[in-house]
Request: fold
Amino acid sequence: MSKHNLKQIDRFVFEMPPQGMMKVPGRIYLNQTLLDQMDSNVLTQVSNVACLPGILKYSLAMPDAHWGYGFPIGGVAAFPADSGIISPGGIGYDINCGIRMLKTNLNYDQFQSQIKSVTDQIFQEIPMGLGRGGLLKTNKTELIKILDRGCQWLVEQGIGDSGDIFHCEDRGSLDGADGKLVSSHAVDRGLSQLGSLGSGNHFIELGIVEQVYSDKLAYKLGLKNNDVVVSIHTGSRGLGHQITTDWVRTLGKYVKNQNIELPDRQLIYTPLNSSNGKKYLKEMQAGANYAFANRHLIAHRIRNIIETRFKKSAQVELVYDCCHNIAKIENHFNQKVIVHRKGATRAFSVKSGMGLPGLGTPVIIPGSMSTGSYLLIPTDKCEQTFASLAHGAGRLLSRKKAKQAFHIDKIQKILLNNSIYFKFTTESGFKEEAPGAYKSLTDVVNVIVESGLGELVLRTKPVANIKG
Amino acid sequence: MNYKYIDHTSDIGIEAKGNSLEQLFENLLTGVIRIYKEKKNFENFSQELFEVGGESLNDLLFNCVDCLIYKIEAEGLFPFNLEITKIIEGRENCKLTGKIDLVGVDQIPGFDNEIKAPTYHQLTVKSVPDGYWGRIIVDV
Reply:
């Protein structure tokens, strides 16, 4: 599939007309720079997704889309809930990998002298990298409860408060999850990792609100210029990865037995209403609840660190927690559908009644280590994308190329020149996540805003970054 | 190095050749292990039998990587070396036998990377004129 196959139908919308086995067109939200930077493998993957049975309207790619497996990262597709399919390749291995932003009642001037010590303490106390355990020592019985109820169970145990639930997508717990279905292999991997950051692109970032674009919306979120915020990006760790591995294997057999030809075996699927479809959905939801709980535990520890250091004069509250890799049953275009978002954020406008009162579902879009994040509120126009927006800046370079291209001294210099303190677990992982390995976050956000899909609320600037 | 890492935007791909299926699998799986840690020698290690099955050679490779990840994350043992001694290729059932050298994860001060899972994306095991060739992409 070539970029020449794309037809520009709007200033920021490129369409791939159906050809071959494609059942619907592909639609990609881009500007010219992002189009030039886009790997043509993304187009092939958008086209592959468009071939899936029952796909509705379009195979979508967000502005940060990049080459993945099965779906592209940044891929979105919806199928009828009553007769459609569910595909682990449309969700990804790291089920409910997502981001949460915490706000503090501290401003930069109050916080500045403690940036290094707070960052060092977070780095020391939050398990990150491989084999470093988790914050919550648990057993299988308790773990099943967490898989069934996510953050809600933790709050009932006195970890966190009701605000932590209210400001979470789906209130931090997906109904329908059934932890008892999850394999013993997945449970074994998840037991020791609950409350851990992991590695790869997972991070903890301390930042300040550098620019407020909408005082009204920022006020509703309890944020203003110079406020100190904390972002946490992680997911369902080994438990979620194993659930997906188990189902990629199981559904591969189904596809083979049905003689279904797929352009990429990672696009394996099953009817949502089949026995396997129902089981996978329940396990995927259990994995998502684990991820909610994982971010919740990390946030709770960071809250304790900050509140202890500032002797209780500090308050740390959740702004919002967004899922990135997930499938959810939602209503769109007067139909109940299952929306697959792989590296995309749910984006319901205020009119939907979803998310937070008077706001809808806030969308937090983080960039690279040196760029901070944007916070947006979706508009009604997001219905075009099955209520989905970008989830990050999107990778520009592969991990291999990033390691070759960036010397560690160069990355450190960029961060120090921007007054960003940093900690990392491995030099190799740090280089893979170099700022230059990512596309421009501003380009991604501009496409969203200028195409009318989202309204800017604010932008944060990092002051410290921790890479797992 | 009997394997090479290939570009994949978000993940890591490994390609290798082998004169035999056993050598191919050994090379590919060594490439997987070295993503975690390049170091090849550890003291106080143990050795275990490594037996994995699969319906096809592709499934076998996928399952091998899954087994290695489980060893590391669930059992806390890092397989820093491996030797594949035999692969039986059946029509519906393949079986791999080998040995792995294991060291406790807690004895390693820091891993270079963490693999989430094997993928079937572009996964290939095939015979070529001078032996076998394979590729696997892992999610990191």
The beta strands of chain B are 3-6, 12-18, 46-54, 77-89, 94-104, 117-118, 124-128, 131-139. The two ends of chain B are 21 Å apart (CA to CA). Chain B has one domain: 3-133.
